[in-house]
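Our preliminary data section would be incomplete without showing what the modeling component actually yields. Below, a chain of 396 amino acids is followed by its predicted structure, encoded as tokens that our downstream tools consume directly.
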Amino acid sequence: MKEQLVHDAEVLKDSTRSIISRIDSTEITVNELEAKVNSLVVQAKVTGLAMSILNDNQIIYRNAFGYANYDRKTPLLINHSFYGASLSKAVFGYLVSVLSNENVIDLDKPLQEYVDFPLYELKSGDKWRGFQDLKNDKRLEKITARMCLSHTTGFQNWRWIPRPNDPENDRILKIYFEPGTQYYYSGEGMMLLQYVIEHITGKELEALASEKVFKPLQMKNTSYLWQERFEDKFCNGHTAEQGVLKKDKRDEAGAAGSMETNLIDYSLFVQHVMKLYKANSGIAQNLFKPNFRIRTKAQFGPLSLQESNENDNIQLNYGLGWGLLQTPYGFGTFKEGHGEGFQHFTIIFPEIGTGIVMLSNSDNAESIFKEILEISIGDTYTPWKWENYIPYQSKE
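Predicted structure:
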């Protein structure tokens, strides 16, 4: 068996072990896992899926199933580039934790205190990302970095997506509750924090991420901006009917969701975070500190406004850009990403050194996440109903 995986191999799969250990100490062979995943990918019409597994804080398995482009029948490889969607937020949370550890930013200091002008005048990117809508709302002055990263700012997710209880809102950014008192997933909060950090440091997000994350971790094919080097090895997103979507090549960095990455790089990132936790690093301690207990019926949609105790058994919570849950085998920390023909999920259990990364270029992928989590690493704790990861069999 190989002792180390190749960093950037032009290969379909590689592994260092023939047996994978689950969080409950049971095992599954690589052959058994691959047979099951292949079956799920075909049955659920998942165009492509790239997956890695970690045991003992090491990447022990990587594989790619299906296609990078369905029409061309291009096989998906582990170094194909994916639109990372909201996995961008997990990397941003880590970056902010690093900056906090360096005393660049205090997680609990109101962001207003970092600028010498009204926060609503903060320089931003596209016009729709400005904060002038909040000119007369003093609650903006209370928002902190921790609130932005734990989704408790009071903002809607995006101003162009009306909250279920405010369907008539036409692209107006609002604060719907006292900051820090409720959970409501918000990309707008991430963008506010991004612009404040860019103001504090005098550096743009891509430069900061490259300096603090991508270069140190050798994430050679990850960026918050589209890069020319991605041109020869990217996969297209696909609809539920396996229609090929045109690749969106982002030219503006967004902490909430512009990142491009691949399985090799993102697995290195996840491995690094796990090792930091094992080393009792302050960065990891900040990252995975529970900030807010979540008691909603779902993360998105109308049910996100309904209270529920369904996930009290796992103590569902949020850290800095990562979700948190408790199990008999230690805590788990997770992040999902979805949008424009891409669906991703990763969860790690830092106390036992086990985890999984799943990147997909299909709008059907979430329908197999629950089963893959269970058979691969024995994760029966991810709140799949809250995530709306309804198995494809239930949709038929």
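The longest helix spans residues 263-278. The longest strand covers residues 58-69. Preliminary results of this kind motivate Aim 1 of the renewal.
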